[in-house]
Specification:
The complex is a heterodimer of chains A (about 325) and B (about 450). By secondary structure, chain A is mainly α. Chain A is built from 13 helices and two strands. Chain B has one domain. Chain B is mainly alpha-helical. The chains are: A mainly alpha (about 325), B mainly alpha (about 450). The structure holds CIS-heme D hydroxychlorin gamma-spirolactone and protoporphyrin IX containing FE (2 copies). CIS-heme D hydroxychlorin gamma-spirolactone binds next to α4, α6, α7, α10 and α12 of chain B.
Chain lengths: ~325, ~450
């Protein structure tokens, strides 16, 4: 059962990254859209993500629940040392979710109030994935010091370092990229399609640049990401697959192959997560001094894992079909 | 403010905020489904208008409920890491099932809100029902997690170790039924009265009377039935507390000295130094009767509990009194409503009658907050009754008061925004829904 549970944990994280990421990305795209096109972008993303954003964010809840039920020590350690970035991420999620709902459901569409909602929406769409990335980066950066004595060492430098911030920026760029790809398929006129293609390209370039930055920062922080990834065959294969698919989508994007580039973008991000995940497996949290919290060593008692695994299996029988039907029903060009 | 107090206050304010949205999230879908059903059956446009007007309000509430729930799932770990480290594997089962229920709720809500004129009307209706069913299921599950904190089960606590963990037994702990029942009924009575009160106000102002009368009726029928059942279920809760948490019961009743013919004290201000209640009315024997069904058997008083294991008495007692006072009032108002529809139909349009409901708008939610104060404060100093102290569970990170101030500000802003948006919804009812010849959408 432990494998079922860890598989669900990994899938929930990947899916949150993809779906939640694309969701945040819509706000990031809006942030970087010129004033005259903003209204169009807003309309497209309202139709594209309105019905599904709430479901997309459930993957985060599922991941958290699996963490605290199945791997309580890992969870409580993260919550203690990464308290501050988690707090900021929560504020971001709150601001974004409410601003999105408010701007669509305000009965009076006043120019002034709409402006406030839009501002809050786009900035929080940027901040939230930034901090999600920072949290993910910090978990594997070995900067968490269980024996720290000062406030700064324990609660600030655990996450405020070059590597974590680079991962944060990388996450932002990937989110924007995913969203742009998704919106290409949802746009209803040729002008918008062009715009989103351009956005996807720009975000892609940013992703490559920030990805390079992550490697650079890892050298500065003595994490040696490059050696790790290129030193193990699975991660290496995954990274190559991601690069090939990136190159392919760069070409295909102009051919109007919407389904294929969507799948390609998802594949690309999944491969990146797989490369990192495999490299760390089974350590979800790596702390200073070489002590790593393995998912196996710190798992909850047998009975809990069994019940949790069963609950997740049965739950997914209910969830997955209805979720697919939801996505299917609200696709623009189905 | 010290960190421990700040952490408790932050937890309390977050839960106190979230519970309002959860109640609405559980109950409004049911109301909408009823109105939706009436629309499908009768084709009277007013029912479609009510459904759509409500669903816009619900979308606002749902988003706020979802984000505040997300905050809570993290806060359990952020504020109480030691608690989650041990409790997570034991009481996590309802949370994982709750996750499933939320997921279904979020999916169904997507279909429902964006599905007008897109799907078969019955499929669309069913998705609305699913929102309600999964909302209620998640409410029951999360309350079952809370009841485990009040009556821990499903593990053996030996030398500081948590052994022989059984999450299913933990989920069906001794308090889950009474708590889940009382909470579900509370959600219906609180939301029913609040919704009815707002529509009563609009009727009294003679705005869109047809629309608001129909809406009022759907809400109040549920609210009134729930309000009449509430004290009965409260009695089950009190008996359960007497058995599982005698300290809580004694604090609720501000009952200091164990004695036969134990009295029930109504009102009053507990004086913990002299161990008595000032200005209260004592009814001898009634407490014994409520707990044991006979007037004589002594109920355990606070004198049987060491001071260091006693909850804050004044807060618990006063919160309990508020809940009882409101519960009794709401029950009476509920009974009056049924008298009106069966015997005195003329009351229904009378000013005083409407005023009664307008006045009752916030009552249910005040009682909900008071009831949770009883449950949570009454459990102190324990986070897991008899097993772990709240002070042992708190995060080691200093400076929690700043996060408390921050979240207080966030909740304040959100509350203001929600009230503002809701009042705009209501203001727009005439324009959006009151046209006599509304173009029929098919
Ligand atoms: C509309 C709201 C409402 C109303 C009118 C009442 N209650 Fe209540 N009460 C709640 C809403 C609530 C609650 C917020 O839902 C609580 C908190 C935890 C729970 O399960 O329900 C609660 C808790 C609660 C508890 C503590 C249970 C525990 O901690 O184990 C008791 C003993 C009662 N109630 C008893 C009553 C009685 C005798 C009432 C009779 C008038 C009453 N309540 C009216
Ligand atoms: C599953 C549901 C719930 C869980 C798991 C839970 C958990 C907790 C925890 C961990 C604390 C901090 C420790 C403590 O002071 O006892 C707490 C405190 C508190 N909670 Fe709950 N709670 C739940 C439901 C609620 C709800 C719905 C409310 C609604 C208002 C609430 C009100 C409070 C209050 C007022 C406190 C502060 C108690 C004090 O002053 O010491 N709780 N709860
Ligand atoms: C520690 C306590 C709690 C936690 C961790 C928690 C967690 C959550 C989460 C994560 C959500 C968002 C789900 C979504 O996006 O659909 C949520 C919403 C919800 N919660 Fe809670 N919750 C707690 C307490 C409660 C209590 C005490 C109740 C009810 C009695 C409740 C009932 C609900 C409901 C009905 C929703 C749906 C949101 C809506 O319809 O507005 N929750 N909660």
């Amino acid at each position: 059962m432990i494998f079922v549970v860890t598989a669900f944990l990994f899938s929930a994280i990947v899916l949150y990254f993809l779906l939640g990421g694309a969701d945040f990305g819509a706000g990031i795209i809006e942030l970087f859209t010129s004033q005259k096109n903003k209204q169009n972008t807003r309309q497209t993303s309202y139709h594209a993500i309105g019905p599904i954003w709430e479901a997309n964010h459930m993957w985060l809840i599922i991941a958290v629940v699996i963490m605290f039920v199945g791997f309580p020590v890992v969870y409580s350690t993260m919550c203690t040392y990464l308290h501050i970035p988690m707090l900021i991420m929560l504020l971001g999620i709150t601001a974004r979710g409410t601003a999105f709902a408010f701007r669509n459901y305000d009965a009076i569409k006043g120019a002034h109030t709409q402006k406030i909602y839009n501002r809050v929406f786009v900035y929080s769409s940027f901040v939230t994935p930034l901090f999600l990335g920072i949290i993910a980066g910090s978990a594997v950066s070995r900067q968490i010091d269980l024996h720290a004595t000062s406030f700064l060492d324990a609660y600030i430098f655990s996450w405020l370092n070059y590597f974590s911030v680079a991962v944060g920026l990388f996450t932002v760029a990937l989110s924007g990229y995913l969203a742009a790809i998704y919106l290409i398929g949802e746009a209803d006129n040729e002008h918008d399609v062009r715009r989103f293609i351009l956005k996807a390209r720009i975000m892609n370039i940013f992703a490559v640049v920030f990805g390079g930055l992550v490697f650079l920062a890892s050298e500065v922080e003595n994490i040696h990401l490059a050696r790790w990834i290129f030193g193990n065959p699975v991660s290496l294969t995954a990274v190559i697959a991601a690069s090939v698919s990136l190159a392919a989508s760069w070409i295909l994007i102009n051919k109007g192959k919407r389904k294929i580039i969507r799948i390609g973008a998802g594949f690309q991000v999944t491969m990146i997560l797989l490369a990192v995940g495999y490299m760390h497996w089974p350590y979800l949290l790596m702390v200073k001094g070489g002590q790593n919290l393995s998912l196996f060593a710190y798992q909850a008692p047998e009975k809990t894992i069994t019940d949790l695994g069963l609950g997740l299996l049965i739950g997914s029988l209910l969830i997955l079909p209805s979720l697919f039907y939801l996505y299917y029903s609200f696709q623009k060009n189905r | 403010m010290n960190d421990f107090l700040a952490a408790r206050s932050q937890m309390a304010i977050s839960l106190g905020f979230h519970i309002i949205y959860s109640c609405i999230g559980m109950v409004m879908p049911v109301f909408m489904a009823i109105s939706h059903y009436k629309w499908i059956k009768t084709s009277e446009p007013v029912y479609k208008n009510i459904t759509q007007a409500w669903s816009k309000g619900v979308a606002i509430f749902f988003a706020t409920g979802a984000v505040s729930g997300t905050i809570l799932s993290f806060e359990l770990g952020l504020l109480w890491p030691k608690f989650m480290e041990h409790a997570g594997p034991i009481f996590g089962m309802p949370f994982s099932l709750e996750g499933v229920a939320f997921f279904i709720e979020a999916i169904a809500l997507g279909f429902f809100l964006y599905g007008w004129n897109r799907f078969n009307k019955w499929f669309h209706w069913i998705t609305g029902i699913m929102v309600g069913v999964s909302g209620i299921a998640s409410g029951i599950l999360v309350v079952s997690a809370n009841s485990w904190m009040n009556s821990p089960a499903g593990f053996d606590y030996i030398n500081g170790q948590y052994l022989n963990i059984d999450p299913i037994k933990a989920m069906f702990n001794g308090s889950w039924f009474s708590e889940a029942l009382h909470m579900t009924i509370a959600a219906f009575s609180a939301t029913g009265f609040a919704v009815a009160g707002i529509h009563a106000l609009m009727i009294a102002r003679k705005q869109n009377v047809l629309f608001h009368t129909k809406a009022f009726k759907i809400a109040i029928v549920f609210g009134a039935i729930a309000a009449i059942l509430q004290p009965l279920s409260g009695d089950i809760s009190a008996k359960n507390a007497a058995e599982k948490q005698p300290a809580k019961l004694a604090a609720m009743e501000a009952y200091f000295h164990t004695q036969p013919y134990s009295p029930l004290t109504i009102g009053g201000i507990p004086d913990t130094i002299h161990k008595k209640v000032n200005y209260g009315i004592e009814i001898p024997g009634l407490l014994s009767f409520l707990v044991y069904d006979n007037f004589k058997q002594p109920v355990k008083g606070l004198d049987t509990i060491p001071i260091k294991n006693q909850p804050p008495i004044a807060v618990t007692h006063i919160a309990f009194e508020i809940m009882i006072a409101i519960g009794s009032t709401m029950m009476l108002v509920g009974i009056l409503y049924f008298i009106a529809i069966w015997k005195k139909r003329s009351w229904l349009s009378k000013k005083w009658f409407l005023n009664l409901f307008i006045l009752s708008t916030p009552f249910g939610f005040i009682a909900v907050e008071a009831g949770w104060t009883v449950t949570e404060v009454g459990r102190q100093p324990w986070i897991i009754q008899g097993v772990m102290r709240t002070s042992e569970a708190v995060t080691p990170m200093p400076g929690i008061q700043y996060s408390f101030y921050l979240f207080t500000a966030v909740y304040l802003i959100l509350s203001i925004a929600v009230v503002f948006l809701l009042s705009r919804q209501i203001k727009m009812v005439p324009e959006l829904y009151d046209r006599k010849t509304e173009p029929e959408l098919t």
